[in-house]
Amino acid sequence: MEDKFGRMLKVLEDLLKEEDILAVRLAAGVGGSIAPPQSSLKIRNLNIWNMVNNTVSEAFTIFGKFDPFGVDKMYIELGDYEVIFFKVDRRTLLISVIPALANKGLLEVEIENARRDIVKILREPEEKTPGLADSF
After folding, report:
1. CB within 8 A of 86, min separation 6: which ones?
2. DSSP sequence for 46-100
3. Which of 12, 23, 47, 61 could join 43 in a cystine, given CB atoms 3.0 to 4.6 angstroms apart?
4. How far apart are CA 83 and CA 68, in angstroms?
5. CATH classification of 4-125 is 3.30.830.10, yes or no?
6. Please, what's the largest Cα pairwise distance for the chain?
7. First vs last Cα of the chain: how many Å apart?
8. pLDDT tens across 22-63, in order?
9. 76-135, pLDDT tens digit by residue?
10. Residues paired with residue 77 on neighbouring β-strands, in sequence order
């Protein structure tokens, strides 16, 4: 049986198969992350993806401050792209980059389904698997 890390990575890789999902990452508040290989990303401007990756801690700060109000998603428009942060749980974010003019409603459904799959995986009983998956 595949470990949690591998199964979460598969969920992300499946999400990346959607035409308008250009980049995707699962980030833990403690600094760990799971993401498909950069070579499989479809985003043309990797500087934007790198900036998103370098500012994840700030996203956690914003979610923490708005948590009493029930925030579970955050959107940032960056020129030709839109970054969507979905809260998986208090310490995990699912981050996706889509084209600015994409059908956001349809993509949100796909991202939400991926989020639910990840929640299921995270809630499974712990098997001792060393490595990055321990961050989640």
Report:
1. 72, 73, 93, 94, 95, 96, 111, 112, 115
2. HHHHHHHHHTHHHHHHHHHHHGGGT--EEEEEETTEEEEEEEEETTEEEEEEEET
3. 23
4. 23
5. no
6. 43
7. 18
8. 999 999 988 889 999 999 999 998 999 999 999 999 999 999
9. 999 999 999 999 998 999 999 999 999 999 999 999 999 999 999 999 887 654 555 455
10. 82
pLDDT of residue 1: 52
How is residue 57 written in tokens? 């801690």
**Residue listed under structure tokens 């959107």:** 75
Q: What is the layout of strands, in order, in the sheet containing 81-89?
A: 33-34, 23-28, 92-99, 81-89, 73-78
**68-72-76-80 Cα dihedral, nearest 10 degrees:** -170
